[in-house]
Here is the input.
Amino acid sequence: MATGADGVERVGPVNAAEVPRWAGLATFARLPRLDQVEKADIVVAGMPWDSGVSYRPGARFGSNHVRESSRLLRPFNPAANISPFKEAQVADAGDIIGNPFNIEEALAMFEAGAHELTKDGARLVTIGGDHTVALANLRNLAKKHGKVALLHFDAHLDTWDTYFGAEYTHGTPFRRAFEEDLLDTDALCHVGTRGPLYGTEDLEDDARFGFGIVTSADVYYLGVQKVVELLRERIGDKPLYVSIDIDVLDPAHAPGTGTPEAGGITSRELLEILRGLRGLNLVGSEVVEVSPAYDHAELTGIAAAHTVYELISLHAAGVGAEPTSPASGVADITYGGKE
Here is the structure.
């Protein structure tokens, strides 16, 4: 048990001084299962499914790979100056199951599972699975919050129309979300995009949906602080969903993914950008597209695990807190220990 600043006792991770990190059940960060706590503020759940992929498969195994890769995470996050498992009750709900042979039915199952885990006000962080599942999470959130802002970290736009006539794939979720009126079109942005496209119409469609784009080259040339300022200004205090395809990272940092593209951002840049979002009105988040068969020495799994940890820290900082304005939020952020 750990006591937060609010005086509430919470069940934390397994004590590594009593049970070695390589032993025991692989819940995320060795957290308690959902059925071991009375109520969770933040729920981690897997969505192990990859029937929407267009190239390399294997993301169906991503959820448990990230859990295994999270065993070394510790309870205090010095970069964010928070002990997330003290300030919020965090628990692993296991996996939400989707029909692997019927995409539309799977999306309905994922949406229902997400609703069940969040109906009492808990915040949900999901581990995919391929990016198709983002549509289910956005559908669930829109019912609670109305149209949501979106920060989409990805090498790709994921706003294409169809593949082989199929409307629901990992390359189409945000076009469907736009068509279903789930997104606040004044507060959308891709981060880390790069690589070849099918044609200029891809960018024209994407702009029509309301997306801004911060490419991986922009992150390099502008730097993390400027990128964070731009993102915070675009999002404001609107309810925000953060969707992270692990292929936003360069293959040097995340080889275990389905559609890798050269020239990506580093894991350090990704984590620093996420830390810069503290104080925004984060209502849900996900990490997707980890395909362990293509991973080496858990490079991708570890990067994804730390990404989920930073998302949990953001959620924990926001439990019971009011969102900050874009201007005041930037002033309060530290980068590498410097104001």
The longest helix spans residues 299-318. Confidence is low (pLDDT under 50) at residues 325-339.
